[in-house]
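Please check this chain.
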Amino acid sequence: MAGYRIEINSEDKGRVLKIPCGITFIQLGALIDIAMGYEGGGTFAAEDDDIIGMADIDEYMDDRDVITYDSKSGSCTLKCTATDENYDKNFAVCEEVSGDHSNKFVISSNLKNVMFVRKDNDIEHDDFTVWEDAEFEEWKRLYELGEEIAEEKLWDTFTDTDIISVPTQGDNAYITVMGSEGINRGIAVFFGEEGLNDYFLVRMSGSLGIDSDYAMFSQNCITANWGNEKDMLPDQLRRIKKLDMDGRGENGSLYFMSFEDGYFPYDLDRGQVIWMTEIFERLLDAAREYKARNLSVGFDNGIMYFADRENGIYEERKWPMPGLMIRELVCPEEAAGMLQGLNRTGQVLEFDVFPTGMPIRMDTKPESPKIIAAVNVSDKRIVLSELTAPDKITDIQAFEALAKWMSMNGIPKRIKVSSPVVESMIADLCRRADIDLRRVDTLVNLGTVKQNLLQYIRNGGR
């Protein structure tokens, strides 16, 4: 068994999800929210039994014919069928099966990014692959639009704190323009509200005590950069030479990078090239109309510029969220029950989750995991050190690593963290276990350990 085919049905729409095995119901719920357009936060039930979100879907799928899912904005039924079709663990594919047209798209397994791979109706599912290189003509069209953007000099009009929003397939894209100070010119595109939250994470990290490297390697976005040829990947350099766009001098060479949580920044695949082509077309329209209409958007205080070319709407709008949303991970009841009766050790730990900031396994999408680590303050000994997996949500992995450690070593008296993001991962767990969780400015002991661990990884585990 490689995965599941899940038929999703509600009163007004139908979808088919094709997912790998080995994910949790929390991840499945997020996939359903994206596929059905729900607000999120739903619950599952099967045969009158509630299903805990942390549960593995494999525990239920084999012997349950129908599972229900209820969210804040809708409900649906799931009919699940195990399949031997070879699904990649990093992707789930969704197909619309009702309505006036058919769309098929790939949802990244970290549940923070949605990329539409096709929008024509005659593409069969078998044409989808985990990675597909764009055709030369597709790259050429994207680069031609990049030339037009450079000619428009968007960085003379917008800054990297100005948000431009355009509708795209399935949701809105949020775009920022870099280079208003004459250096590091580029475009960053974030998809949906989850992507917008990633933008706020990067933008607000310094003021909130969040490590900038953590923010950079946790975001999900695509960037277009006008930089130097020495900064490019070999394939990117060969591409601009084939396009006769090399030799542009200092900060004149265009290249693209995809940022995805759990991976080192990588080159675009075909679906991303197609999507960025649409984004560039919409961005050019937005910029030209902004000038033609002599608009002056007040970008301060939660205001963005919204441009919808299909409906002729070019106006100020409020952000769809007030700023960075840090969601506290809820401790499942079974995990809370497991804590009951465990020894209380009196230990004080420093706990952190930080990026390696380097590719660990080279591939088309090179993995770049984070490190979950804890140090016993009394003897400065590493008591927990674990690498995250790119196909699982970091917050859940950090929670599970600490809960597992406590199940074997007892409950500490106090845990110190330095980041509000890391604090949110274990706050409810600490509350349930009556652990004194404190946020401090600096993790004195873990700081040294962090450098040693990173050096160990750079040296290939030696």
